[in-house]
Structures are given as C-alpha cells and as structure tokens.
Amino acid sequence: MISPQELLSAYANGAFPMADSRDDSEAKWYTSSRRGIIPLEQFRVSSNVKRIVRNHHYHVKFDYAFRDVMEGCADRDSTWISHDIVKSYCQLHRLGYAHSVSVYNKKWELVGGQYGVSLGAAFFGESVFGWAKEASKVALYWTHKALKEGGFELWDTQFWTEHLSQFGCVEIPANEYEKRLDSALKKEAVFEAVQVQ
User: Is there a domain that residue 112 lies in?
Assistant: First the structure.
C-alpha cells in the first residue's frame, strides 16, 4: 500500500500513481510534459445536464461512499485502479485529503461518481464513472460547484482528452503547470458538501 505521506508528497511534486491492472501489486509513478487542467471559470456542461440537475433527476452526496465510488471507477475491462490503490486512497480519504461525489437514482442506487485528492487549493481529479444517463457529467457538475465554493484555484485532470475538452479541459506545458501548482499549494481551500436542492 502507498502511504499517505508518499501520495501527498508525489502530488505536491506533480506526480501521480497508476497500476497496470486491477490486480497489479505495485503502482508506477507518472508525470507529464503536458498537463490537462480544467480552469474553473471555463468549466461547462450541456444544457441537457443542467436540466437534469435542475429537475433533481439524481440524488447527490459528497464524501459519502468513497470506496464505492472508487470501485465504480475501477469497474471496467481495463483499469489502472488496482486493489492496492483503492486501499491507499481510502486511507487518504479518512485523513481528509481524498474526496468523492456520488450520484444516485431515485431508488438510492449508486449510478455515477467522481473522486480526487485535495492539497492546498489544488484538486487532482482522479477518475469518474457513470452507469446511467449523464450521471458522470452530473458528478463533474457538482465537483465543480464544490471546488468553486471551497476556494480552489487549480483543477488538475492529469491528461487532456477529447472527452474532457467538452467540459473546458485545456492542455498546458509542464512548467506552467508547476507554477500554478506551486501557487495553489500555498493557499487554503476546503472540499465540502454544497447545497444541491
């Protein structure tokens, strides 16, 4: 298992762990010459997602079912979220550094979610999943809301992807990322539940 101290030190230095498979016993550490971030003021979702949020189509909880959200993110044919990584981040969650947004249907069945790590005013989005219509996007919508209200200034997605670009994700050089990370680490922010009704 990766210790909380090792994880937090890695994030503070721009690195993050990924395993080769679900059963991989040892994660590898990665950095990137170009980094994906979502500028908080540029975040966007479709009008359909806004309508789903407005109509309270789903229930939303913050830091409510952290392990379940991680397991949901890992529930795919190929994943970098190993059993060891789940244990490591659950420990980080208990210490108040890892957070989740969970999305439930009307029967209170988990259908989507997102988790990540907070350090200073930086939030490192790790993974997101959705098993129902737009549930993953609803999780990102509420993550953004919590980051804005909590005073965060950096939302790291690690990599830029075409999928993430629809939410406002952009790619920046590593040296620019390091400056933004350094600035965010010197500030305080709080990830906590926001009003969803």
Answer: yes
Number of helices (H) and strands (E), helices first, in the chain? Answer: 7, 9
Output the pTM of the full model: 0.94
In the predicted model, residues of the chain with pLDDT beneath 70 are 197
- Predicted pLDDT of residue 197: 58
Please choose, from the candidates 152, 195, 193, the residue with its C-alpha nearest in 3D space to the C-alpha of residue 41. Answer: 152
pLDDT given for residue 26 in this prediction: 85
- Say if 63 falls within a structural domain: yes
CA distances from 48 to 53, 57, 131, 148 (A): 9, 11, 17, 21
Collect all residues with Cβ–Cβ distance below 8 Å to 19 and sequence separation of at least 6.
26, 27, 28, 80, 81, 82, 84, 85
| CATH assignment at residue 156 | 3.40.630.70
Is the backbone of residue 134 left (phi > 0), alpha (psi -120 to 50) or beta?
left
Nearest by Cα to 9 from 109, 117, 163:
117
Structure tokens at 108: 């209170």
Burial class (CB in 10 A: 0-12, 13-18, 19+), 70: buried
